[in-house]
Design a protein that fits this description.
Length: 437
């Protein structure tokens, strides 16, 4: 057998390797003094849980996907199932466990700044694309060239869909603008590299969030109030968990996941059929996200969790429900990290440059608006990830501030699905003009 297979291809072994890495990160982070104590004051543990798997992939220990060539000369495609399992099973379970004790009124009291930062992130993506094309074309016109289905702006349209909404919006943009699917892999690659590096920078910023908030002159009182209410409730109901507690927590988490998958299995095809019946191509593609099973699964799991927060089930926070949710989140972070091969950054420098300029404009606008309205770093980071990362990444960043805040990330990300295609179409029109297409 030949090909580019990593050293470890068995998911059982890879999962164990990731868990050992996370365990070592937590062990070293818990050191009260010495090198590691100083190290984690600068670099958050969550960032390391993301970066160590990325390093494993870069050096060839593991890989998200690979090829082998058999004796007959046939190329066989392989991929890991770890990200799929983490995002489809552990992510919704984590959202349920982290939302059990949520104080919904306190979430709404976070106010208008959360929405402003979310929409600022959206605007940053919409204007960032055409500005990036104009800047890169001045240095390397061929990078933003191409005609017909090969036109680069058509491919960048799929990035706009992904960075404002998610996978469903990205697919919709591919259909709307008819980008050459043989070249589409290059755009997916840019999406993975740029979005993941930006997420890594946001995670690093979390470790310095207090300093950033001081610089922004931010009022984070509403966030602190929410955290205090959840923490006070957790202390009130805290108890040493029994086996019965642990089994009921597991039942609540994965029972909710099961119901979310069951209902999404009916709703996604039903809405897909309704959307397919819309005569207008533009309108039909705007609502493509309603046919996404992932969208419905995340939305339903969140709604179930919010419903449970009004029942006695919320008392299981005292038995550590959100801590088990955090375990699932760290596994998801590691599975996302292993998708990132750091050496691939150098394979398509032109498109990567467009992506970095684009994301820099998005980030710069967020920082500017956060400074003007004195929004805390939490709103900046989560508002950005609700656009760029979607429902898989926004709750990760939000929960890094406090487990009770994961719901905020999900709610904004779901909103991103709703406006993703419309905003991406606007961005693409501007990119087409900028590219002279």
């Amino acid at each position: 057998m030949e090909g580019n297979a990593p050293l470890f291809t068995d998911d059982t072994i890879v999962f164990g390797l990731l868990m050992i890495a996370i365990g070592l990160i937590f062990y070293t982070e818990s050191r009260p003094s010495g090198f590691w104590h100083k190290f984690y004051k600068i670099v958050p543990g969550l960032f390391m849980a993301y970066m160590v798997p990325a390093l494993f992939t870069t050096v060839g220990l593991i890989a998200p996907e690979w090829e082998t060539v058999n004796e007959s000369g046939e190329t066989i495609q392989h991929s890991t199932n770890l990200y799929y399992v983490s995002s489809r099973y552990l992510l919704p379970a984590a959202l349920v466990l982290m939302t059990l004790s949520i104080n919904l009124k306190a979430v709404f009291n976070l106010g208008w700044k959360a929405l402003i930062m979310f929409f600022t992130g959206t605007v940053g993506i919409v204007i960032g694309g055409p500005i990036a094309i104009l800047l890169i074309s001045a240095v390397s016109p061929e990078t933003v060239g191409g005609v017909g289905p090969d036109a680069v702006w058509r491919g960048l349209a799929t990035l706009a869909g992904s960075w404002i909404g998610g996978g469903a919006n990205q697919t919709a943009m591919l259909e709307i603008y008819g980008y050459n699917q043989k070249l589409y892999g290059g755009m997916v690659f840019v999406d993975i590299v740029v979005a993941n590096i930006w997420m890594a920078l946001l995670l690093i910023g979390i470790g310095r969030s207090n300093s950033i908030d001081k610089w922004l002159k931010a009022d984070n009182s509403a966030i602190e109030t929410l955290k205090e209410k959840v923490s006070a409730f957790a202390k009130k109901v805290k108890r040493n968990p029994s086996l019965t507690d642990l089994m009921i927590i597991t039942a609540l988490a994965f029972g909710s996941v099961s119901l979310a998958h069951l209902l999404s299995g009916y709703l996604a095809p039903a809405f897909d059929g309704l959307v397919a019946g819309i005569e207008s191509d533009t309108t039909r593609n705007i609502f493509t996200f309603l046919g996404s099973k992932f969208f419905w699964m995340i939305s339903i799991a969140t709604l179930i969790a919010i419903g449970l927060s009004f029942t006695k089930a919320r008392n299981y926070e005292g038995a550590g429900a959100s801590k088990y949710g955090s375990v699932f989140i760290y596994i998801l972070v590691a599975s996302i990290g292993m998708k990132m091969d750091l050496m691939l950054i150098f394979e398509n420098v032109g498109l990567i440059a467009i992506g970095f300029v684009w994301m820099t404009i998005h980030a710069g606008l967020l920082i500017l608006v956060a400074k003007l309205i004195r929004a805390p770093y939490f709103f900046l980071a989560v508002g950005s990830q609700a656009n760029v990362g979607g429902a898989a990444s926004a709750p990760i960043v939000a929960s890094a501030f406090h487990p009770s805040l994961a719901t905020v990330g999900v709610l904004l990300a779901v909103f991103g699905y709703a406006i993703g295609t419309v905003a991406a179409i606007g961005c693409t029109i501007l990119m087409q003009i900028a590219a002279g297409g």
